[in-house]
Amino acid sequence: MDSRLTTLVSVALLIVFAYLSSHQPQHMGTFFIIYIIATIAITLVLGGRSAATIIRDIEYVKSGQVLLSISRNEVERLKSRDRLLQEELSKQSTALIPQMVTPFLFMILIFVPGVRDQIIQSIKDFLKIFNFESNMESFISFLIFYGFFMIIFQIVNFLTKLRLEKLGGRIEVPSFYIVTDKGLLLEGRTPIKAPVHISIVKVDTRRHFLEFKTKTTSVSGSLSSKIRLYSDDPRKVEALLKSLTEQRS
User: What's the pLDDT score for residue 215?
Assistant: First the structure.
């Protein structure tokens, strides 16, 4: 989905909640929580695929002839032997901490007695030089207030995205998967239809996995993610994927 639509929806939410808060300031804490949740939900919904499309793709991939099926036990056994995996996942988790913590810090700040009112009053004091009508002044104050948090949130998301890209992308490790002649199905819920538009980036026969890059959607926007498929024979997985893949540089 076009990122411009996501931005427009976010701005619309900003205006709506600023308007509601200016008329019902006693409920601002509740409005702010709803605003944060709505912003995250809209980003995920507009950036992803519909549930109906995903279900249809799952059924399509499952209808194909099974070429390879890797069980949860096999993946867990191979992951437990991969000594570098925990270090890689730890770096990824560290990169995601600011993004996960920021909304909660905002909420705590909003509910600290007096802090919220002091911030709003400071904005109103600044706006007095423009001689706005009382209701307009209140609306603009809340608009600036919400806008400030939206900008901070976007900055944190952008920095998180840069950090993840520097690490080579988010690593996702399906706990089980199947390959059919119609695509891949990861954990029974993430379909990748053939011809699969991926780029194989690594085959590690010592650590028993194959990695490929694809695009996924998160709160940070569209990210380049690395899907890691563990297998006793990663070369076999590579051959199967190549038979289903339109390679992209």
Answer: 67
For residue 1, what pLDDT is reported? 46
In a domain, 53, yes or no: no
Give 109-125 pLDDT, tens digit per residue.
777 767 888 888 999 99
The DSSP-derived string for the chain is --HHHHHHHHHHHHHHHHHHHHH-GGGHHHHHHHHHHHHHHHHHHHHS--HHHHHHHHHHHHTSPEEEEE-HHHHHHHHHH-TTHHHHHHHHHHHHHHHHHHHHHHHHHHHSTTHHHHHHHHHHHHHGGGT--HHHHHHHHHHHHHHHHHHHHHHHHHHHHHHHHHTTSEEE--SSEEEETTEEEETTTEEEESSB--EEEEEETTTTEEEEEEEEEETTEEEEEEEEEE-S-HHHHHHHHHHHB----
Residue 186 lies in a domain: no
In a domain, 215, yes or no: yes
pLDDT at position 246, please? 57
Q: What total of structural domains would you count in the chain? A: 1
Taking the complete model, does pTM exceed 0.85, yes or no? Answer: no
Confirm whether 66 is domain-assigned.
Answer: no
Domain that holds residue 117: 3-48+72-175+195-244
Spans of the chain, pLDDT less than 50: 1, 217-221, 247-249
